[in-house]
Design goal:
Blueprint (H helix, E strand, L loop, with lengths): L7 E10 L4 E6 L12 E4 L2 E8 L3 E6 L1 H6 L10 E6 L18 E11 L2 E7 L2 H4 L7 E4 L2 E8 L3 E6 L1 H6 L10 E6 L1 H11 L12 H6 L4
Antiparallel strand pairs: 1-2, 1-6, 2-5, 3-4, 3-6, 4-5, 7-8, 7-12, 8-11, 9-10, 9-12, 10-11
Length: about 220
């Protein structure tokens, strides 16, 4: 689990591409403090596992499914990425609960300056936007942001100077892809409401069965 509070901007040092997968080597500093093999690190909001590390970089394997469904496929050597280590119990939860499992891709539509903040408009599919609510939380490239506006086509967030300085979001361009992770609570509620019990899965063991077979 993560919080969506980016700890560091890393730099892609190298990419070794397989047929459909990839191995990333990312240059970083803060994120390497206490790192161990098998640790989870969110890269642009995608939960990945550390497979190797040095004093100034770490390596990650990216499987084909992740390449297909995230903007990691667009990375090249020198690309900047948002990095966050997994949440530790006892840490302050300053953002919101983020799983690192991307729901889909959004496309940046526009940037608009308003005093000290910048409005960012992101287009997304109805399948994603149905989970997004005004004043709710959204993960954009691993950044926990508050939804200021949403309809059936786009969502908008307002980015303060601090977020501009410590993330990659405002270095993007119109038309760029961003990873989106919706607040998981809505997805759980939908699943529970739409769940239909399969009677064929019910156990045939009841009190009569136990009595007939000498258990009671």
């Amino acid at each position: 689990m993560f919080t969506g509070l980016v700890e560091e901007i890393g730099t892609i040092q190298s990419i070794l591409k397989g047929t459909k997968s990839a191995k990333l080597v990312i240059k970083a500093h803060k994120i390497l403090d206490g790192v161990q093999l098998g640790d989870s690190i969110a890269v642009n909001g995608v939960c990945l596992t550390v497979t190797d590390f040095t004093s100034h970089s770490f390596s990650l394997d990216v499987m084909a499914e992740t390449i297909r469904n995230t903007n990691l496929k667009n990375l090249v050597s020198g690309s900047s990425v948002n990095l966050e280590r997994a949440l530790r119990l006892g840490d302050r939860l300053g953002g919101h609960l983020v799983s690192g499992h991307i729901d889909g891709i959004g496309l940046i539509q526009a940037f608009e300056q308003e005093d000290n903040a910048v409005w960012v408009s992101v287009a997304a599919s109805p399948e994603i936007l149905k989970y997004v609510i005004a004043k709710g939380s959204i993960g954009i490239d691993g950044i926990s942001l508050t939804v200021a506006y949403v309809d059936n086509r786009i969502l908008k967030v307002s980015v303060i100077p601090h977020t501009k300085n410590v993330t990659t979001l405002l270095s993007k361009k119109t038309g760029d892809e961003v990873n989106l992770e919706c607040d998981m609570i809505g997805k759980y509620i939908e699943k529970l409401i739409s769940f239909k019990e399969d009677n064929s899965l019910k156990s045939s063991i009841d009190m009569k069965f136990l009595s007939d077979n000498g258990f009671i």
